[in-house]
Every structure is written in C-alpha cells, then in structure tokens.
Amino acid sequence: MHDAIAETIGEVGSVLLGKTHQIKLALTCFLSRGHLLIEDLPGMGKTTLAHTLAQVLSLSYNRIQFTSDLLPADVLGVSIYDRDSGKFNFHPGPVFSQLVLADEINRTTPKSQSALLEAMEERQVTIEGETRPLPEPFFVIATQNPNTQAGTFPLPESQLDRFLMRIELGYPDAEAERMLLKGEDRRLLIKHVRNTLNPAVLKDLQDQSQHIKVSEALLDYVQRLVQHTRTAQEFAYGLSPRGALALLACARSWALIEGRTHVVPEDVQAVLPSVVEHRLREAADFSGHGGAALAQRMLSQVDVIG
Amino acid sequence: MNDFQIPRNSLAWMLVAQAGVIAPHVWSLRLPVWIVLLCVGCGIWRVMVYQGRWTYPGRWVRVLFVIGGVVGIGFGYGTFLGVDPWVGLVITAFVLKLLEMHSKRDAYVVIILGYFVALTEFLYFQAIPYAAYVLLVVTCLTAALIGLNQTRSHTRPVKTFKLAASLLLQSVPLMVVLFVLFPRLAPLWTVPIQSQTARTGVTDRMSPGNIAELTQSDDLAFRATFEGPVPPQSELYWRGLVLSYFEDGTWSQVDPRSYGPVAARQKRPAWVDRIERLGNQVRYSIILEPTNQNWLFSLTVPEPVDMDGVYLVRDYRLVADPEVRSRLRYEVTSDLDYAIDRRMPSRLYYDNTMLPVKGNPKARELAAQMRAAAGSHRDYVNAVLRMFNEQEFSYTLKPPRLGDDTVDDFLLGTRSGFCEHYAGSFTFLMRAVGIPARVVVGYQGGEYNRIGDYVAVYQFDAHAWSEVWLEGEGWVRVDPTSAVAPERIQSGLESAVSSGEFLGDLTLSWLKYRQTLWITELRLQLAAISHYWDSWVVGYSPEVQVDLLTRLLGNVDSKTIGMITLGLFFGLLGIIGIILLRKKPIAALSEVDKEFLRFSQLLAKEGLGRRMGEGPIDYGRRLAAARPDLAAVANRVSETYVTLNYAEDVPSDAMALKQAVRAFRLRAMTTR
User: Fold this and answer.
1) Within a domain: residue A206?
2) What is the CATH classification number for the domain harbouring A262?
3) Are A158 and A246 in a shared domain?
4) Which CATH number is A171's domain given?
C-alpha cells in the first residue's frame, strides 16, 4: 500500500519537477478528505499539479475558470426545457466531478464563490428544490492569485477555513528548472502519466489515515501549539478547535505517507504551516496577509518535549 | 532622523508626569517665571509634533534654546552655586529634551530624567505628603515607561496607569527590604543645601524684643523622646546659648572655646570630670530641625555626646560642627541635679561681672541700694525677684519700645516686657553689684505628645533666663520670668499671655486651637505620625541602621549588613530561579522525556544540544550528520525514544531508552 503512495508521488513529481514536498502536502490533504487551496502567481504549475493528480488518482476532472462575470449556474448546472420530452432536463455543471479545479477563485464575485464553497462543505448541491449528491470522492483544488493583484475578491476568513490546507508552490530550484526547460511540453506529459491509485484504494487509504496512532505525548504537543496561538501576544486570535482537528488529521495522513503507523512531532511540524497559516493572523498585521512567518516562529517557540 | 512616533499612552503619561514633577518647584516659587513658560511651551510644541501639525525644531533652534537656557539660569539665579540653579538647569534640560525625542532611546532618556527630577523634590521637603505626591508622580512616569513598550493598539491610558501602579505595589516588599538593609554609603561629595525649612530660631544675640518676635512662629524647633518618664514642665529648661557680654542693650556670647578645651568623642578634658553630678539622671534623644546654626539644645548638665561633630563646651552646652543644615538626631544623658563651677576660674569670673563703664545709671543705683539692704548675695537675688513679683511688672508679648538705657527704661519706666527683658535686666542688676551672672537662651517647656511619647518644642517656646554664680553653690539657674508670670513656666506661654497675643498673627495655626479637644487630638495624631516618619524614614541614617540591625541581629557593622543584604537578595533570586527552572518541566515530564532531555543536555556541552522545537527524529539526523562516527548509536536513541513516546499511548518503560543512551555514551567515550 505504501508503495502505491510512493509511486504516486514519483509519478506526479515527474511532471511537476522539484516539488515533492508540495505534492506530498496535496496528497495529505486528499487523504484527510479535505480541500486544497493553492495560492501563487500565475504560471507556477498550479493547474498542472491539479490535472496530474486527477490523472494518477483516476478521478474525473473538471476545471472551472472563475471570472468576474461567472454565475452560480455556471458552476452548479442548470435545468433546460427539452422540447422532445416536454420536461426540464438537468444539465450538471462542472462541479459534478471527482476532482474540481477552481481556477482563480478570488477573481469572481462572492455570490459565485459561495456556490462552490457550499458544495464543498455539504458535498451535495440543491437546485430547484432537488438535492443532488456530488460524486465520491470529491475534491476541490482552488487556486488563488495573491490578494495584492488587481481584480481580486479576497476570500473572508470564514471561507478560507473551508480549505483544509493552503499551499504555495514557489519557484522551482535551478536544477528542476533546467530539466523543465530541456524537457517536453508538460501537457503532453500529463497524458502519459500512469494511474497509480484508484478511488477505491484512495478510500481505503483515507480510512487507514484515521487509524494512525496518536500518543498522549503527541496530543500534549499539539495542545501546546494550539494554546500558544491563543496566549502569545503576537497572534490576533487563536486557532479554533476545528483548526486543531485539521492539524491532527493532516499529521496523521502525513505519517501514513511517510510509512509510519504512528504520528511523530515531525509530522505535525511538516503540515503545520499549510494547515494554520490561512487560519491565523498576526496581531500587528491589520491588513491580514496570514501568518507565514508566524507559523515558523511558533514551531521554534513551542518545544516538542515540555 | 527616523520617524519614530511615541505611543499615545506614553506621551500622555510623560506630559502628565512632567507637569507633576515640576509643579512643586513652581508652587514653592523656586523657578523663575521664564522656565515655567518654557515648560508649557515645550509641552504644547511636543503635542503639536505628535499631532503632525508642527515639526521638530531644527538644530540651530535647539542650540539657541540650550545656550539661552544656561544664560537664563545664570542671570535668573545670579549664581551657579547651590542647589537651586542646578535644579533649574535639570528641569530646563528635562523639558527641552521633549523637543528632541526622535527615537525610543530619547524617550527613555526623558523618562529616566523624570525620575531624577522627581527626586530633587526631596532636597527641599521630606514630609509624608510630599513623599506620597512623589510616589504618584513616579507611578505616572512608570506608566509612561510601560506605554513606551505597548503597541499602538493600547489606547486606554487609565489601564496603563493601573498596570504601573500594580507594578510599583509589587515592588514594595523589595523596596522595604532594600531600605532597611541596603548599606547607607556616605556621599562622595556634598552640596551645601540652603534648606528652606531651616528656621533660625534663637540667635546668639539678645536684645529686648527679639525673642518676643520668635514667639509668633508655630514652627517646630525640635522633638525630644525620653527614656523613662518625662520630667515636669518646670524642669524643661533647654539650654542653647550662654550670653555673657553686654553692650548697648544687647547680650551676646563669648566664644566658649576661649575658656578651655572642648569635650569630644575621644577627648575628655579635666573640667568635665569636675562637674558634680548629684543624680536625677535622664536619657533622651532629640531630633533637631535644621537651624543653620551650630548650637544644640540640652537639659543641664549634659554628658559629652558619643557622636562625631558634637561637642560639649566649657559653659556646659552642646555645639555642632559644622552647622545643623539638615535634621539632626542626637542622644544625650543629663543630670538634672548638679553643681557646676563651685570654684570658678578667674577668667570666667571676670567675664561674667563685666559691664560697660557708662549707661543705665538708675539701675546701678537701684542695685546698690537693694544690695545694701540685703544681708547676702542670696538675699539680694530673692529681693530682686520679689521686686518683679510684687511691684507693677507685667508680662507681655508686645512690650513698648525702650530708649538707649534699656535697663533703666524697663525697670523704672515701662515695666512691661517679655522674658528677655526680665532676664537681661536681672543679670544686669546682679553684675552691677559684682555678682557673676549671665543670660541663657533656649527653650522652656514643650508639649508632650502622648501618642508618640515625645515632647515637641516649638519656636514660641523660646525663652531666656539667668544663671547666677553664688559662693559655695556654683552656677544657679534663676528665672526672673517665673517671678512675674509663674504660669509661663508651669504650663507654657499660652496661659501666660492674654488670649489675643498667643500666635496673634497666625490665624490658621493648628496650635491656636489647643482648647478644642478633637482638633488637639487630630493634631497630636498627625504630629506623632510625622515624628515616626522623621525618625525612622527620613532620619534612617547609617547609625540608626546599625543600631536597629544590632538590636535585631546582634553585633553588626556595615560590612556585615552589606553581606546580609547581598546574601538575602541573591538567595531569594536563587530560590525563585530554582522554582522557575524546576516547576514546569519536572512536573509534566515522563521518565522517558527526562532521559531524552538528559541525553541532549549531555551533547549540549559539545554544541550538539537539541534546539527549541526540534523533533527527536530531526535531532537524531542532525546528530548523525555532525558525528558520523556516532550515527548508529544516536539513531538508536532517537528511534527508541520515538517508539516509546509516540507509538504507544503512554510510554511503558524507560529501560530501553536508558540502554540506548548508555550504549551511546560508551561509544562516545571510546571514540574520543
């Protein structure tokens, strides 16, 4: 089973070069049944990552490009009158697939944003009084341009919280970039990527993740971390219980990916920045750009043994 | 020049404290008006800078201010000597620094300077209300200090003030300990302080009218605390000065050192041992208010005082060298029954019978007549006293003016006067017939405060009396006032003069209302508190400290006190430190954790300790990378720890980890 995970990471890594850590984080997010938010500049490989993941996990894949004039119906689907049968037929929108890439989610209006975010939370869509379940498994990878860029509607904290993790891809290192420049077109490569996992195996892995051992000592550590965000002066507000649960769930999945049957502090540390950064804000930072530096400081201020 | 903006809270409290620090100096009119205007101006300018309306003054403006300030102080005070101009200079610098607060460091300088200026208040006043006031100002300063370190989101000054107050409150125990125990070091240099509270009191010249003037003041002269019962009022003749030279109606003193050596701490001339002490010994300590004079007050006849700078001189009184510039506390033993100078040196005899050749002819004639009528010197003394008592002499605080022949005018003309009239003319009458006599000036009586158990002597207790030398008896105290107004000696001035005269110019004096019971009670209470404050806080001198600690701890010197203080201080710090160090980790740590911590502490000596927040696996990897020779054993330790601590709910036993650590140690030792 662990081989399958390693293979998956290797397969995705062959397309998205030099980003093993981010790939593992994305996989962690899926194993914890969460949705992923990728925030980065255009052209950093956000779409490539999403598309490749869909491919290796054998998931049905749809991409929604969010624009300022996008309507909720464009996401969820619409009923159209069929003259032949004399009935309204429902035409499901792009959200009805196992992996949805919501590209540039902060370019659209709050109304359309919340259509997707509600679907993410409920895992079902209600249109014209009829509730339609979304496929299993259901993942959303949303990408977001940095808030400072023109034409963005920043997501409020309450909606950021819907995403289990937020990651940044960052520039590739020199070696990876060199290979990228020498290699083939990424789009072509994606087509040749092997299916290493399937939804059934994925579900199995998700179940396994929930049974990864968490010792008292580790819970102590997690609680100390959470407590630190609530008491230290530099935090505008602390981590919610949901945030703490998210942290633990992700640490479990990470441990599973690392091939362990129990969680160790390093697992918590590996996932902590991605899990908490979009849920915290520095007290001195009124504009609210999240706490990238905060998470790092937090890790160096809260001891593992204590 | 950076764009540091002082937090609002800090600036607010800084300005409040600044006003508070300077206010008492303004109130007591010590500061020239222009400094006051400068303070207000700088404050306004600073607020304007804060609001962004004005800018900081440029360099040349500041230079101009500084030069102007120094020159202004030079002209304003006329001198740079003494305390006042320097206090003025510090205050000027203090307010000018406001206009130079470009950085946090500058703000610190202003606040620290504020603490210093607050201290200068004590150069002038040390009473409880002033101390309370300074404490309030210090709290404001501390609030400014706190505000400086708060973020701009703290906008409630009252909260900051409360925090400062609670901080200061918490420091009270430490303050008390330091106050009591910290060695009191002598200053490296002293500045002559012209204390404004110093009252001259009795002077070394007595002419008719000048003691009566003194009785218009209700200022405290000194306080005396007796060991044992307080002698009766009529025995409390506090001798201060002996005046034996008479000329032009004025009595003045002859330098007592001209009569022989003085008795000091290590020196006991022969005349001291010739004093015949006949018992009725009293011991008392006196806290003398500053007088800027060198005479001290004591009951006759005192023993030499065991204190540096206090001497017993030939006319049996105490003097201080240098002058009493601040409150002085000294302890005296006196014998109320005595015989002094039974055999009088000729020099003394000569000085105390001398009179001007001319003047006061009627008085001389009167003296000759009365002496001829009396059988002995003793009878003559009694006859003169009887004359004061039986003839139309009256005792008043407002005596009429006298002509050139003061004694003649008084004895045969006005016949109303105050103690100096009676003492002066009595002494004259004695000398006129060749009996050695002299005038003694000091205080008589005092008010017993039963709450504080001490006798308070006020300026209106000032008094003058005579001493007469009689063959075979030595010097005998004769108080002619007691013949005219015995109630003055029995129960004080108030009962001896008419009701309008006592403190007639002071309508608001507490002491005027001695008849009202509750006012008296309240006044005595306050006076007693003030007495304790003066003797235990303001008067807590190195001697008192050693004395107190000797009583508490046995024989100590300042070195021991220092050692005890340091010992207590560091001991306490040590205990707190140990508690802080041990408290958290030990309580929560499991055996496994402890073992692992010991392991990392072992390696910390080589700079390979575990970092804060570093996980065990990362640590093991770092160790392995740093010491490849120990990689295997190091990994075993970290893996064992991880297995024990994280793979089970609760670590089962620490044995495996201990073994792994032991293996590591062994390996580390063999490879070294």
Assistant:
1) no
2) 1.10.8.80
3) no
4) 3.40.50.300
Would you state the pLDDT for residue A214?
A: 92
Rounded Cα distance, A35 and A30, in Å: 7
Residues of B with CB under 8 A from a CB of A: 151, 153, 584-585, 588-590, 593, 596-597, 611-618, 642, 645-651
Q: Tell me which residue of B449, B579, B458 sits closest to B522, measured CA to CA.
A: B449
Phi and psi at residue A24, in whole multiples of 5°? -65, -40
The Cα–Cα gap between A187 and B18 comes to: 73
In this complex, the residue of B585, B642, B648 whose CB is nearest that of residue A306 is B585
Strands (E), B266-410: 276-277, 281-288, 298-299, 310-312, 318-320, 328-335, 338-339, 394-395
- Do B648 and A215 count as a contact with CB atoms less than 8 A apart? yes
- Chain A residue numbers with beta carbons less than 8 Å from the beta carbon of B611 are 300
Residues A41 and A87 in one domain: yes
Separation in Å, CA B661 to CA B156, B483, B667: 55, 103, 10
ipTM above 0.90, yes or no: no
Residue B140: active-site member? no
Contact call for residues A34 and A165 (beta carbons, < 8 A): yes
B646 → closest Cβ in A217, A301, A303: A217
Show which of A201, A235, A267 is a domain's final residue. A201
Decide if A284 touches B, using CB distance below 8 A. Answer: yes
Question: Which of A37, A188, A186 is CA-nearest to residue A104?
Answer: A37
Phi-psi region of A104 (alpha: psi -120 to 50; beta: other; left: phi over 0): left
pLDDT digits (tens, 9 = 90+) for B258-307: 887 888 878 888 888 888 888 889 999 998 888 888 889 999 889 888 88
Residue B621: domain span: 589-671
**What 3-state class would DSSP assign to B225?**
strand
How many Å separate Cα A45 from the centre of its chain?
A: 14
- Quote the number of domains for chain A: 2
Token output for B127: 């009473």
- Cα separation, B327 vs B317, whole angstroms: 19
Are B17 and B72 in contact by the 8 Å Cβ rule? The answer is: no
Tokens representing residue B123 in the block: 């150069």
Tokens coding B446: 């005092």
Same domain, B262 and B370: yes
The answer to whether A256 and A4 are in contact (CB under 8 A) is no
Residue A49 DSSP class: H
Closest CA to B443 of B160, B211, B117: B211
Residues 6+ apart with CB under 8 A from B536: B544
Dist CA B572 CA B564 (whole Å): 12
Identify whether B479 is a catalytic site residue.
yes
Shortest Cα distance from A303 to chain B (angstroms)? 4
Give whole-number Cα distances, A59 to A16, A62, A202, A210, B246, in Å.
18, 10, 10, 22, 126
Rounded Cα distance between B54 and B46, Å, is 9
Count of beta carbons in the 10 Å neighbourhood of residue B342: 14
User: For chain A, what percent of residues have pLDDT higher than 70?
Assistant: 95
Same domain, B474 and B612: no
Residue A266 pLDDT grade (very low, low, confident, very high; cuts 50, 70, 90): very high
User: How many residues in total does chain A contain?
Assistant: 306
Range of the domain at A272: 211-301
What is residue A152's three-state secondary structure? coil
- Quick check: B61 pLDDT over 50? yes
